[in-house]
Amino acid sequence: MNNLIQTLIVKYGNVTKTAKAFSVSHTAVVKWKKNGPPLHIALLCHLSEDVPYIFNPSDYGVDNKGLKLNLETTKKVTTNDSIKRV
Known about the structure:
The chain is mostly helical.
């Protein structure tokens, strides 16, 4: 069974609740257990602070060189809007 799917089933309680959380069928989650989750589900889990999962592009045949994501944030707010003094 895929580790991510096992993590999700434990987090949500069972396959049915996991399916409901992702708006998919029970059958879809059962297939994920065998074949692994689709790319978009893995990315959603990676971005969620509630799911302890780190996306591995090679699991999906994606070359790391093509991913230019900067997932770091800063506390400084920036904008391209001009400042109008009132």
